[in-house]
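Attaching the record inline, Q. Sequence:
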Amino acid sequence: MKTILLTTAAALGLASAAAAQEVTLQFWDNQQTESGLSEFQQAAVDRFMAENPDITVEVTTIPYPEYQQRLLTAVQGGNAPDIATLDQIWVAAFAQAGAVADLTDFAAGAGLSRDGFFGGAWDSAVVNDRLYGIPFNVDVWQFSFYNQDLLDAAGVAPADLTTFDGLRTAAEALTTDGQFGVGLFGHRGEDTVVVVNSFIFSNGGEVLNAAGECALDEAPAVEAMEYLQDLAQFAPDGILNANSGTMRELFLNGSLAIEFWPALEQPTLQASDINWGFVNGTAGASGTAVGTFGGWNLAVFESSANKEAAQKFIEFMVREDVNGDVVDLIPANVAAAEAFLAENREGPEDILAHLGNAKPRPLSARYLEVAEIQMTLYQDVFSGANVAEAATAACEDIDALN
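Structure, as predicted:
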């Protein structure tokens, strides 16, 4: 009888130990479809659980407009998820607040490094030389998509669109009654910010310098904004209320010759009747077109009691054989991106080159406030204000945030 009791106790002990090792991860993500995750991402979550039967992943998807506030409320209330996707522009604020875990040592131990990802995307997760996220997916603003039939009719070659001077000349030639040369837009939105930033970057300018001070009043940035102010005469009216979606509709109905958009636009164009192509942005004085990165990073929250399991989930989701199957943009893992682009996008080598040159938006914990000031500045620019004076005022406001 004693032997039976001991054996039963030992069995119960082993069962308890096994149960104690089982982990449930709470994973929050930006809603990608009406139902939540895309079917491909859901399949990847299921695959992870099959490979790791001791870890259950419970997914919550949240629409983008309310996602950041929901995360902030959860952190403040002590109910943060274990892991979440963070927009690149949110990482610095969450890191400075101590809300997300330092992943520097984890990344090194897992063999994850900047070399395996697009450099600008990796840099978007670095705050004070420490890593607070792993790049998950990426894209670049802007590629210049064009209507080949309209270019042919105006005697414009795609190569003409690749420089400031060439684009200006082409835009003028492409603007006629009922037809517009360029799809510039200037509403108060992040799409306005990233497109204007790309012209500033391509002219050798910055938004913030290495010391974190505003650089929008420096010559390269001012010259780029003056260029866009002049280029706006070849865009549809109502630029201050127009957004990228407005320009998409005009491009698809054949009345807009050149549209500024990320590579994510390609599936829409592939399904259209437009004879389209694209070039990699527009080079100014720098001699190279430099796009603005967009995308998402995977982060672990500091309050998580399951950091090791959360890190294992991240390592899985950015793996070369997984990352290309789970993203709705472009995989942040370069090897996965190469295969993804070759299969799903026109001009994959051109896209890869633009990704390699792209830069993240300012890595500031006050980024959202910086962006609001930029939106005001860019609206002033498109309203015809003196650019140098408007930039000086904007820089005073940005530097006052520090």
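The chain has a mean pLDDT of 91. The longest helix spans residues 2-21.

More tomorrow.
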